[in-house]
């Protein structure tokens, strides 16, 4: 397996994801916290990537701990937070390299989020241990919010993404190929700005929503689901009360 995008080209990750509505996701979470009457401000983001959600949560006054499996994604997240802190106000974000299913974190959090397919990076056998680990980190009465990406269990045909980074064009061809154990092998070839070409191969899991709901139940969560973080989002979002 190789993770050229996460390990070597986090700037390209941002370019590929530049149309994503991060504000909408953050508004969804803060709305659910308000409805739930949650008043604590300690928030853990799992799989924070390049920090777009973490920064927004911190700007809204949360004390954020943000973890990711890939150090270069965290480096970019730190750099962006330092650069974009509005009015030079320091943001309360602690970026740490750590991964599910054993994130090796102390303390508890009033809210835990894992936004945009983070859970789909886990093998099926790691789902329950990961949810148990998050349950242990959630304060009593806290809220866990994460989504299940609608990956194609039978695979798909190659698709093309194109765009620009710093005024230079990139192109990526990618597809999911079904492999053993109900998983998908995500394969991509990217022509990066500057002439570099790199490949990525990453195992992903197309979880059924029922499977996730059952695992949450076993971990002791009471669960609600939503159709996406907002209109036009085709993920299932799980809102789980600790
Ligand atoms: C699709 S990206 C989403 C990133 C970010 N949440 C966003 O919306 O931009 C998935 C992220 O999950 C991270 N990741 C993958 N497996 C992980 C694991 N086991 N534990 C923590 N993070 C993981 C990847 O490094 C990547 O940054």
CATH topology: Rossmann fold
Estimate the mean pLDDT confidence: 94
Question: Tell me, what is the CATH class?
Answer: Alpha Beta
Q: What share of the residues does DSSP label as strand, in percent?
A: 25-35%
Q: What is the count of DSSP helices, taking H or I runs of 4+ residues?
A: 7
**Helical/strand content category:** alpha/beta
Annotated CATH homologous superfamily: Vaccinia Virus protein VP39
Question: Secondary-structure element sequence?
Answer: EHHHEHEHEEHEEEEEHEE
Q: What ligands can be seen in this structure?
A: S-adenosylmethionine
What distance separates the N and C termini?
35 Å
Helix content: 25-40%
Quick take:
With 242 residues, this protein is α/β, with parallel strands linked by helices. It is built from 7 helices and 12 strands.
Characterize the structure shown.
Helix content is 29%, strand content 34%. It is globular and about 50 Å long. The protein has helices at 4-8, 10-16, 22-36, 52-59, 71-84, 127-137, 209-218; strands at 2-3, 42-46, 63-68, 93-97, 109-114, 138-148, 159-165, 168-179, 183-191, 197-204, 222-227, 236-241. The protein is built from seven helices and twelve strands. The protein has a seven-stranded mixed sheet, sandwiched between helices. The chain has a five-stranded antiparallel sheet with strand order 1-10-9-8-7. A hairpin with an 8-residue loop joins β11 (222-227) and β12 (236-241). S-adenosylmethionine binds at residues 6, 17, 46-49, 52-53, 68-70, 73, 99-100, 115-118, 121-122. Keywords: Methyltransferase, S-adenosyl-L-methionine, Transferase. One of its GO terms (molecular function) is methyltransferase activity. Residues 44-142 form the Methyltransferase domain. InterPro entries: Methyltransf_25, SAM-dependent_MTases_sf.
